[in-house]
Amino acid sequence: MYGVLLAISSGHFINDTLQAVVPAMFPIVERSLGLSYTQIGWIAFALNMTSSLLQPVFGYYADIKSRPFLLPLGMVSSLLGLIGFALSNNFIFLLLSVLFIGFGSAIFHPEGSRVAYLAAGNKRGLAQSIYQVGGNTGQSLAPIITAFIFVPLGQEGALLFTLAAGIGIIVLVRVSQWYKKRLAGEDVFSKKRQNQKKKAYNGIHKKIKIAMLLVVFLVFARSWYGAGISNYYQFYLIEDYGLTIREAQLYIFTFMFAGVLGTFFGGPLADKFGKRNIIFLSMLGSAPLTLLLPYLPLDVVIPVFFLIGFILSSSFSVTVVYAQELLPQKIGMVSGLTVGLAFGMGAVGSVLFGSLADLYSIRFVMILCSFLPLVGVLTWLLPKDKEIRNYHAM
């Protein structure tokens, strides 16, 4: 169990590190290419929407017929996009390059989630946390990449990450071999298809459908807040607090690293206290702190930022497992919806926030983002974990 989970988590780490190169480059290309906040928002939009819209599609077809070697193929696509992004000298080429990176991510994530599900045994919360913490760790490196690679080396520094992509391809080839043997050795999915036919006769319970829509909406709101922080808070620190690009990265890293810890601990806590409860506490527990953040003096931003990242991200892997248990016959598609579509819809927020920053100010955008976690009050409408099992039994 743990060997496979650590391997797929490592692949997730490398995949999301390559994605992290894009927002890490924003302060550099904003100055070197003279990009506006709106153009930066469109780059984030192109990256996230490519991966988010296609993830449920790949997940849907993976539920019908798994294709293990799509995992390294996705990494190859990200590698090609990374090379193009490092060498692009205008806005259009940047957009085209991030499409390849987003496409690679869309291929990887649904199959990666299925591998984690297969290796989980009865510890689904823990398994999903191990898998997701790899991706969140990769994303958290964006400010470190900016401070120590892109500030001194510039845009071409992205070529250094081609080595990581090569390692990722090798790791994922090994994972794909295990995945293929697992599918060949067990008749798991044929049994699931028989169950699907039985359940299809009765249809999916109405409350399950409503709950799934609500879960997607909650992840959508959380991803909007994450998009506002990861893409624009560094500019807020630079403009309103007078920090340099390198100094601002420490604050972003604090938020993202806290998210890594929250993601890891959230899964085991959900296994013990219930998934719906952790989702509820995660969203509303962070809301008072997010509302205070835009008005805090610089000295206390880091500890508050850490708490926001930890609390808000504690439901990251939990939401995925909760959605998988809502629709256990559609693991790939559900993973694509929660990790991909809903999370990637933060790209829409990136464009909106960029336009609002150009029209008003970065401070206005940060205040607007601070209200988003309040949406978590809707979690109380979700069915409890035991109620989900009762709906499936009907």
UniProtKB/TrEMBL annotation:
PANTHER family per record: FOSMIDOMYCIN RESISTANCE PROTEIN
GO CC aspect terms: plasma membrane
Chief location of this protein within or outside the cell: membrane
Top-level taxon of the source organism: Bacteria
UniProt protein name: MFS transporter
Chain segments annotated as transmembrane: 40-62, 69-85, 91-109, 130-151, 157-175, 208-228, 248-266, 278-296, 302-322, 334-354, 360-382
A Pfam family that the UniProt record links to this protein: MFS_1
Keyword match Transmembrane helix: yes
Keyword field: Membrane, Transmembrane, Transmembrane helix, Transport
Ranges where the Major facilitator superfamily (MFS) profile domain occurs: 4-387
Localization terms from the record: Cell membrane
Molecular function GO labels: transmembrane transporter activity
Cited InterPro entries: MFS, MFS_dom, MFS_trans_sf
Membrane topology: Multi-pass membrane protein
Native source species: Rossellomorea vietnamensis
